[in-house]
Amino acid sequence: MNIPQVSVSEVADDAVMLDVREQDEWDAGHAPGAVHIPLGDLPARLDELPDTDSGTLAVTCRAGGRSARAVAWLSQQGFDVANVDGGMKAWEAAGKPLAADSGTASVK
User: Fold this and answer.
1) Of 20, 30, 42, 61, which is least packed with CB atoms within 10 Å of its CB?
2) Residue of 39, 59, 61, 81 marked active site
3) pTM, whole model, 2 decimals?
4) Which of 77, 70, 107 is nearest to 89 (CA)?
5) What CATH code is carried by the domain that includes residue 50?
6) Could you confirm whether 61 is annotated as catalytic?
């Protein structure tokens, strides 16, 4: 299956995204507009997926592996989604903003 990809440069700094990392990774640092639903919780929490005005929902994890699985599964469910190429590591490397629940934000 071909996984739709989007590069971090194509995602707005304040874009609504889906972050499928674990809680400790999220707490360490995440995109300001992201919605957190860990990959394992996704099937039970589809009603929490954010609506996007642009149509396509960007999905991210640490480096792109888990989010690729999420995109494959969500695509099969009929959602318009794309994997953020390189994940949050690429987001941080590109100098994109990070928010943290406490302390200094960094990608874990």
Assistant:
1) 42
2) 61
3) 0.94
4) 107
5) 3.40.250.10
6) yes
